[in-house]
Amino acid sequence: MYRYDQIDRALVTQRVEQFRDQTRRYLAGQLSEDEFRHLRLRNGLYQQRHAPMLRISVPYGLLESVQLRKMAHIVRKYDKGYGHFTTRQNIQLNWPKLEQVPDLLGELAEVQLHGIQACGNDTRNITADYLAGVAADEHIDPRPYCELLRQFIALHPEFYWLPRKFKFAFTGATVDRAASRTNDTAVHLVRRADGAIGYRFFVGGGLGRQPLLAQEMNPFVPESDLLRYATAVLRTFNRFGRRDNIHKARIKIVLREWGIERFRAAIEEEYAKIKASVEGEELLLLPEDIERMRGHFPAPAYRPAAEVGADVAAIAAGDAGFAAWVKRNVRPHKVPGYRVVFVSLKAPDHVAGDCTAEQFEALADICDAYSFGEIRSTYDQNLVLADVAERDLYEVWRRLDAFKLATPNIGLVTDIVSCPGLDFCGLANAGSIGVAQDIYRRFDTLDAQYEIGAIRITISGCMNGCGHHSVGHIGILGVDKHGEEWYQVTLGGSPSNDAAIGERIGRALARDEIADGVERLIHAYLELRCDEDETFIECYRRVGMAPFKERLYLNESEAAAA
Amino acid sequence: MTVTILSRGELVDDDWTLIEDGHTQIGSAGGKVIVTLARWRSEREALLAAHAAVGVLVPNTADIEVVFAEISDRALIALQFPAFIDGRALSQAVVLRKRLGFTGELRAVGDVIQDLVFWLGRCGFDSIVPRKDQNLEACRAALREFTVAYQAAADEHTPVWIRRRGQVAA
After folding, report:
1. Among A182, A297, A351, B92, which residue has the fewest nearby CB atoms (within 10 Å)?
2. Fold annotation for A417-561
3. Which option is the CATH number for A305-402: 3.40.80.10, 3.90.480.20, 3.40.50.2300, 1.10.10.10?
């Protein structure tokens, strides 16, 4: 885990004081509502339906126990006793009081947390593979590169007032677990045949209105040029991103309006100019810079498999609850004797991604005792204990289960991704939480979930798409029609290596139809699949939209035929 | 009517006069004036003959690398902030300073509020004209809102990855 030095500490502390003064001036009437809005957004503070929402950045999804304990304290002192993990691996608070936010940020700064650039038209928190460093399919650990770029974009003076938000995601593995191409820029760490490390850069992705996947700009930018290429992309965006229409201001619109050839040429030309100038010398990373940063992310002190390994299957044979959890929530680890444990934040009757003060504390204790003091947040609003010894699995399960953190549903139909929706969010047009819970109840039995298998249901309460509806196998988008909540359904989206934007199936469904509708789609899949191994998304890609559409709107086609 | 501005970190009376397009009167004879790029292009000789110094105001949509050939000898270049959230001129400024080597006065005009000043200073603006309602002392102090920075821009800060060379990871 990256440790702050005096430079990082000074920067975060001075940032708190800067925001304290801005809040004071706003409350004294010296800053207009609109001026303050842009300043508070750059500190993670959003105006929500009931209260301000504070988004806390979790750099590339990595947290340690001291931060979890601080979060427990924060949500008790400044909020209603819980926080919420988002699809960008961040934590949101729903009920802080504006006047208290500077103090809250001051407390966060004590444990290397902040809301810097968590919202607003700037470079946002970087997301990454939540299995970085432990995945068997990883070629290069992305975390050192994430931290180098995190520092580079934090309070970057030239790119602090961009046309719109700008998101980076990193992965260094074969499987894309970072939904990377849904970001403005995806950076894939690659190793060339000659052994040289570099970056495959994709630019121009984004969800929300007109969802698009990032397109390849450069297949191999040398390792030394991370900051040079990032500067070229950001400068191109700052210069040419549209500022006349907020809905057309993301970099994906520049790509769409220019076409990929012109867009790529502009970025490559800027990159060439940077390399040839004094600026390029400063931006060049030396091998020692990367090596030093790599030193911040050492492998944990793993014990020999003979010492920490266990016959997990044998233990599971005696306990059906444990067995179910191992089957769904435990994954292989690249080091023998260890496993990756998923912590489900999708318990029945709990809001997806929510985490109470007691759960924060329990997780801090568990990761201290059993996973080297660290935990990761995932893109699916769950958590990961990345380094659990096999001999500890049963105890970890028992302790997670005591805090409702062991629902064995990772990747299944009840592992629903959802934004806060109309219940909290000032932007939302429709509720998300209630819809997620209705769908959840339809498939509550484990047998039903296992029968259905791997599926990704995602729900957003508005076009902005925080619930990533565009890349759900079944995506649900809440819309407002004359004051009523309606839901548009898309099929076939995916955020992973087979990334795709879902296609709209047909007319929107009313609030009281949506859970029925999803159930009909699932039953359609169970009928249509060629065998139990064919997943929902594979089946959809084979048979296409028509048979699903037919079954979803069954009564209507009958009515039309009559 | 003198205007107080921030120049190289100090509050001073401005001795330049900004002449908008459409105004036929172009400042007192012999004075220092700033004119738009369009006027500079059409009236260059007359302006040089009539004034002690002529600076040029460049729109924030202009390609500064293309325009620079016409204005590289100017003592002052002014860049525009139509709204403080519009950061296009920050990229123009960095390119002027670091790529094109402009060493003259670089001025920020427009919707310049106290909370933009720090970023202006880092991007190479040494001449800042705050919006009329701004607290000038606070603007001056804002130049030093942070004593540290992660990255180089067009000021004295050395990037952290260079500062940390020679140290071992904590």
Report:
1. A297
2. Sulfite Reductase Hemoprotein; domain 1 (3.30.413)
3. 3.90.480.20
Residue B170 has pLDDT above 50, yes or no: no
| Chain segment A469-504, per-residue pLDDT in tens | 999 999 999 999 999 999 999 999 999 999 999 999
* pTM strictly above 0.90: yes
- How many Å lie between the alpha carbon of A340 and the closest alpha carbon of chain B? 27
Contact B21, B37 (CB under 8 A): no
On whether the CB atoms of residues A159 and A179 are closer than 8 A, the answer is no
Residues linked to residue A474 through DSSP beta bridges, in sequence order: A457, A491
Task: Report pLDDT digits (tens) over B130-151.
Answer: 999 999 999 999 999 999 999 9
**pLDDT digits 0-9 by tens, B47-100:** 999 999 999 999 999 999 999 999 999 999 999 999 999 999 999 999 999 999
Residue A324 has pLDDT above 70, yes or no: yes
Strands B127-128, A509-510: pairing is unpaired
Report the distance separating Cα A460 and Cα A560, nearest Å. Answer: 31
Residue A365's pLDDT band, with cuts at 50, 70 and 90, is very high
- Determine the Cα–Cα distance for residues A132 and A180; give it in Å rounded to an integer: 14
A287: nearest CA partner in chain B: B165
B109 bridge partner residues? B80
CATH code, residues A6-109: 3.90.480.20
Model confidence at A420, pLDDT cuts 50, 70, 90, reads confident
pLDDT grade for A47, boundaries at 50, 70 and 90: confident
Task: Give the DSSP H/E element, type plus range, for residue A359.
Answer: helix A357-370
Q: Please report which residue ranges of A79-178 form alpha helices under DSSP H.
A: 101-109, 143-153
From the candidate CATH numbers 3.40.50.300, 3.30.413.10, 1.10.287.380, 3.40.630.30, the one assigned to the domain spanning A134-294: 3.30.413.10
The enclosing domain of B51 has a CATH number of 3.20.20
Residue B116 pLDDT > 90: yes
Closest CA to B40 of B14, B15, B60, B68: B68
Residues 6+ away with beta carbon under 8 Å from A479? A429, A430, A462, A463, A485, A486, A487, A488, A508
CA distance A146 to A472: 26
Distance CA A361, CA B40 (A): 66
Test B153 with A277 for CB contact under 8 angstroms.
no
Selection from A478, A464, A475, A471 nearest residue A422 by Cα: A478
Among B68, B146, B165, B168, most A C-beta atoms within 10 A, so best to mutate, is B146
Q: How buried is residue A330: exposed, middle or buried, by Cβ count under 10 Å (0-12/13-18/19+)?
A: buried
Q: Look up the ipTM and state it.
A: 0.96
Query: Which residues in chain A are closer than 8 Å to B163, comparing Cβ atoms?
Result: 7
Q: Is the pLDDT of residue A562 over 90?
A: no
Distance CA B20, CA B116 (A): 23
* DSSP bridge pairs for B80: B109
Average pLDDT, chain B: 93
What percent of chain B has pLDDT above 90? Answer: 85
Q: How far apart are CA A422 and CA A279, in angstroms?
A: 46
Which residues have CB under 8 Å from A180's CB, separation 6+? A169, A170, A171, A186, A187, A188, A202, A214
Between chain A and chain B, the number of residue pairs with CB atoms below 8 A apart is: 112
The whole-angstrom distance between A107's CA and the closest CA on chain B is 19
Cross-chain CB nearest to A39 (options B115, B160, B161)? B115
The Cα–Cα gap between A164 and A10 comes to 28
> Cα dihedral sign for B113, B116, B121, B126?
negative
How does DSSP assign A301-321, residue by residue?
Answer: -PPPHHHH---HHHHHHT-HH
